[in-house]
Structure formats: C-alpha cells, structure tokens
C-alpha cells in the first residue's frame, strides 16, 4: 500500500497548475474532452513519484469522483459561467465571483482528498516512467 499525503498532492498540483501553459492545457482537456483536472493532476503526480496504475485502477478512480464531479463541481462551474455572462445585471458580482472561486477551490481540494483516499487503497507498481496521464488521455 502506498500512503500518499493529500497536502503534498495539493502543493504539487498548485505548483504544476501555475507552470507554463499547464492551466490552459488542463482547462482545455476539461472543457473540450470532458477530462477531470484533478485526475490529470493526480496522474502527473503519480508519474512524478514513479508509481504506475493499471487500466482497472484508472476506471476505479474515474468512478470514484464521477458523482462528486457531476453533482458538485460541474454545477458550480456552470453557475459561475452563467454569472460571468450576466455580470452586468448582477449586483455585487465581483464579491459573488470571489466567494464562488473560493468555494470551488475548497471543493477541488476535497476532490483531491477523495482521489488520494482511493489511490491509497490500491497497490501501485513502481516504474521509472509510468505515463499514467497518457493512458487517461487515450481513454475516451
């Protein structure tokens, strides 16, 4: 069993997200291909640690966050986009936007905790170059 720490994963994610065009790339994967950003980040994290998952474990991770993603994260993103599109008619938009972004960030961290809890129940293989992210991106 590989006990990974969610705080270390969060720190890795924040640093990775801010590098180069990673934010743009991750959001494009989310918006154009329906990929989960936190799962992409986890797979990069596992790659950086030299830990390989198999396709069954990937399916488990996808299923583990599916409900949270569909019922919590997606509606929040939709609400935020709707408010942004109609900001001229919304009193206090800047404050509302700031609070929604803060809530979304807290929920992203919660989703990462869900992923870490799930991966900590798995036996992962050590491998020099695991390429977990490629397996996820190839998975339609």
UniProtKB/TrEMBL annotation:
Task: Write down the InterPro entries for this protein, in alphabetical order.
Answer: CHP02444
Q: Which domain of life is it from?
A: Bacteria
The protein in question is named TIGR02444 family protein
């Amino acid at each position: 069993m590989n006990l990974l720490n969610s705080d270390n994963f969060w720190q890795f994610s924040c640093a990775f997200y801010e590098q180069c065009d990673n934010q743009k790339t991750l959001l494009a994967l989310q918006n154009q291909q329906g990929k989960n950003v936190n799962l992409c980040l986890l797979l990069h994290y596992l790659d950086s640690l030299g830990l390989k998952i198999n396709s069954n474990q990937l399916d488990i991770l996808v299923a583990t966050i599916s409900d949270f993603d569909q019922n919590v994260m997606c509606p929040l993103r939709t609400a935020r986009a709707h408010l942004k599109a109609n900001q001229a008619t919304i009193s206090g938009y800047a404050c509302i936007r700031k609070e929604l972004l803060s809530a979304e960030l807290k929920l992203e961290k919660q989703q990462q905790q869900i992923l870490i809890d799930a991966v900590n129940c798995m036996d992962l293989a050590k491998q020099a170059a695991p390429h977990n992210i490629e397996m996820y991106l190839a998975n339609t």
